[in-house]
Design goal:
By secondary structure, the protein is of the alpha+beta class. It has 2 domains: about 40 residues; about 140 residues, no CATH class. About 40% of the residues lie in helices and about 25% in strands. Strands 1-2-3-4-8-7-6-5 form an 8-stranded antiparallel sheet. The longest helix is centred in the first third of the chain and has 35 residues. The relative contact order is 0.10.
Length: about 180
Amino acid sequence: MGVVSALADVRAFLFQSVILETVRTMKAMLLLVMCALPCFARIGETREQCVKRYGPIYEESSDGARLEFRSKGLDVICFFRDGKAWGLSVQVAPKAMTDEEPAGFTDLTASQAEKILQANAGTSKWKLTRYDDGIDLRRYETEDGKILASNGPGGLWIETRERMMEARRVRSEEFIDEVIKGF
């Protein structure tokens, strides 16, 4: 009976130690990411403001309408029109490739996404307009209807309503052009 009791005590101690170490690691990771959160881009910022906020440009489109930054563990892509950001995408940056784990983006937590959304609400407030539990996708809109967002697999996407309508128009025209080719 004494050996069984001692083994149970050792097992409980080891389990508690593993849990404690896991919690410490998670707290450290959360603190690291939270320190990076105040630096998020905002709809309406200029190219210069984004460069000041994130540092060097990681990648840029040939027309300068798309800038990608890798800053403080985040991958931020800003889309510009008339010199102002009218769309942005935020993801946790890919990890370095190792034999054990391939490189890849990871999703933001709901708490992280909430902080970024608040930084982009302007004078309005966000409202949840749709939640798809099957793929864990949340869609938001500001109360004034000027800014839209979605958060789910692939990261957080924020854009002006104008950008969303323009993207739909372009996709529609491209689709029609493709269909017409066959006639």
